[in-house]
């Protein structure tokens, strides 16, 4: 589904991703963990082409998205992204947030987009907030709307960059619940998170990144219980 | 001192004409300046330095030189060059528009850049093109923030339009000077002009404050 080959990314002299190779299967849930600054966000942003890559290739369903000939906007439609700080459009209501991209990009009719939007809001448990503005929602509600907004474009892959890090502890659960549901329905997901419980329960594979490399990857149980690399052990001993 | 209200009354119709022209000139200046300014402001923030350069140059020139000099350049240079002869009102509108466009371009640039980067990223991650993201996500939010500084620019422009008296555009200050010349008076004509400008700017401030408050509560 996604294939990352020899990906390198530098910001000026700072090489943030040094040589990333990664393959993600359809319906797989990959959890990315690692210390701050290890390049987790940068990896996701590269997959969504929010950052230009310095070297290497990223293939989504066989199409090289780093190839200049391919339409970036078209590529991005297939990849949904959920951000730490939600990034909802504050000047639009919840339902308008969900309808904007489908109507403008996919040229879906307003009615169809609305119906689909309402259905997605029901799914994330926020149907009654359709006409509310984002500023009136709690953090957990905002993030659920953000997930629904990404789903409205019917992406094939969903990327999550620390979706619960900006949330109050008591609302983390409701967001994770939505993500779990999504995983159960077979969505391909890449999730950067510090929620080790989620990684263990939902993840098919956990990737540990440090210093711009993938240091270790394995099934959650193996990686958490018997890490092979010293750096993984050191990191896990701090967060578990 | 003998303040001659009767002379002011005599000149009142001219001041009224002048007031209408002042309003017309500054309104035209702010409207054309806004359209040009949006274009120039967007031009300045494109990634490509080569494309951005002429826009930056434009802004630097019009903000770095006195409006009076620009008025002369337009009145005696640009307008005759383009139309064969000059016309004070046309030159006035052109000069005010070009000048305000530079300031408004900076207002737009600041407004656009004040919108959180995450907004653009969210829009792009949904597959929107740069233009779609600008149009549906960034600009509507930026416009709201631009209203107070745009209002300020309007007030500045309204006051600065008095400079057009020197190229004989018959706005408020032109009639003030005419009256001063006719009667060898200072206080009557210029205090009248000042008073009219004050009324205009205070009313405008009032309208803008209300608009701002309305937008804040949405
Ligand atoms: N736009 C940028 N310009 C320059 N440097 C950047 C930029 N974005 C990220 N970096 C640098 O890249 C490195 C990796 O950042 P990244 O955000 O990918 O880390 P992360 O693993 O997501 O960390 P965190 O857990 O804190 O979110 C950091 O050193 C950061 O300073
Ligand atoms: Mg990060």
TrEMBL record, chain A:
Keywords: Amino-acid transport, ATP-binding, Cell membrane, Membrane, Nucleotide-binding, Transport. The keyword rRNA-binding does not apply. One of its GO terms (molecular function) is ATP binding. InterPro entries: AAA+_ATPase (IPR003593), ABC_ATPase_HisP-typ (IPR030679), ABC_transporter-like_ATP-bd (IPR003439), ABC_transporter-like_CS (IPR017871), MetN_ABC_transporter-like (IPR050086), P-loop_NTPase (IPR027417). Residues 2-236 form the ABC transporter domain. It is found in: Cell membrane. The keyword Cytoplasm does not apply. Its main location: membrane. It is a peripheral membrane protein. Belongs to the ABC transporter superfamily. This is Amino acid ABC transporter ATP-binding protein. It comes from Mesobacillus maritimus. The lineage of its organism: Bacteria, Bacillati, Bacillota, Bacilli, Bacillales.
Automatic annotation (TrEMBL), chain B:
Its main location: membrane. PANTHER family: GLUTAMINE TRANSPORT SYSTEM PERMEASE PROTEIN GLNP, MEMBRANE COMPONENT OF AMINO ACID ABC TRANSPORTER. It is found in: Cell membrane. Keywords: Amino-acid transport, Cell membrane, Membrane, Transmembrane, Transmembrane helix, Transport. It comes from Mesobacillus maritimus. The chain crosses the membrane at residues 20-43, 55-83, 89-108, 154-175, 187-208. This is Amino acid ABC transporter permease. It comes from the Bacteria.
